[in-house]
Amino acid sequence: xxxxxxxxxAQRRTKLRERLLDVxxxxxxxxxxxxxxxxxxxSEAGCALGAIYTAFDDLDELILRVNLSTLQxxxxxxxxxxxxxxxxxxxxxxxxxxxxxxxxxxxSWRALFEHRLSGGAPVPEWYAxxxxxxxxxxxxxxxxxxxxxxxxxxxxxxxTLFSAVHGVVALGLEQKIAATPPExxxxxxxxxxxxxxxxxxxxxxxAAH
Amino acid sequence: xxxxxxxxxAQRRTKLRERLLDVxxxxxxxxxxxxxxxxxxxSEAGCALGAIYTAFDDLDELILRVNLSTLQxxxxxxxxxxxxxxxxxxxxxxxxxxxxxxxxxxxSWRALFEHRLSGGAPVPEWYAxxxxxxxxxxxxxxxxxxxxxxxxxxxxxxxTLFSAVHGVVALGLEQKIAATPPExxxxxxxxxxxxxxxxxxxxxxxAAH
Lengths: 209, 209
Fold this sequence. Notes:
Two copies of one chain form a homodimer.
Chain A: H1 3-31, H2 38-45, H3 52-55, H4 59-81, H5 87-104, H6 106-114, H7 125-145, H8 151-173, H9 182-208
C-alpha cells in the first residue's frame, strides 16, 4: 500500500471514530447505557455495522471513550468549584459540584458506574488514570485537614470520601431509599462532608496533644 | 363455585407462589437480577409461563417479594451485630455487618438496588416499610451521639450514614474506582464511620458550650 493510501485510510478511520463517538455520546446522554445499540449507532453515523469494529477494538472501547469524555467534563465541573475557602467548605463545594453534575447529566454519569467490561476484565490504564485524577481534587483540602498524615493515607481517604459522597448522591437521586426532595439531598450531603471534616479536625487536634 | 373448590384453588395458588419465590430466590442469589427469565422460572417451578401471572400481579411483584426476603436477612445480620459497645463502635459494627452481608450475598444484595419498577412507579408500602426499618437500626447509636437533636434529624442522618456506607461498600466491592483488597475496604469503612461519629461528638460538645 502506498503511503498516500495509508494516510487517507488513517484519516478516514479517525473521522469515523469521531463521528461514532459523537453519536454514542448523544445516545448515552439521552437514553443511558442500556439504550445503546450497535445497529442504531451505525445507522446514525451512516456506516456499516462492521465499520464500528474497524474504528474501535470493540463496543467496550467505544463506551470507555464516551465515559472518558464524561470524566473530563466532571473533572472540569469540579475544578470550577474549587475555592480558596477553608478546607471543610472547599470539600463541601466539591461534593455539591459532584451532585449537580450528576443531576444535570444523569444518564452519562450513571454510565460511568454501570458499564462493566466483558468477562470482568480490568479497565485499561488510560481510563484508570483519568478516573484516579478525579479523586486527586479532594487531596488538597484533605491535606490541610490532616497535615500529619502521609500521602498514601490522604489518597485512601480521598477515595473513601468520594465513595461516601457518591453513595448519598446515587441513592438520593434515584429516590431509592426514600423520597428525597432536592433541598434535602443538598443538606444531607453538606452534613456528611461537614461531619467528616469535623472528625478529621478532632483527630488531628487529639494527635497533636 | 363451592367453598371447597375456592379453598383448594387458594391453597394451590399459595403453594405455587411459594414454589416460584423459592426458585426466583435461588436464581437471583446465583446469577443476579439480569439472569432472571420468566420462562426459566416457570420451567424450574414446573408450571406454565402464564401461571406466574396468576400467582403474582407481575414479575415486578415477584422480584419485590424476593428482595423483601433479602431485606429481612440483611436486617437479621444487622441485629446480630448490634452491641452494647459505645455508640461509635456500635455504628462501626453495623457498617461492618452490612459489608459482610454484601460480600456473602452479593447478587441478592445488588438486586435490592438494581431493580426498578416498570414505568418508574414507587415501590408499594409493604416494601418501603421493610426498607425503612433497616435504617432505624442506626438510630439508637446515633441518638446517643446527638442527644440534643430531634427524631427527624436523627432519621435523616441515619439515611445519610446508610447511603455513605453503601457507597463505600458498593464501589469497593466492585473494585469500580480502584483495586481494593478486602482488608483495605474494612479499614476504609471503619475510618468513614469513626470520622462521622467523631464529627458528631465534636458538634454536640460545641453546642453544649
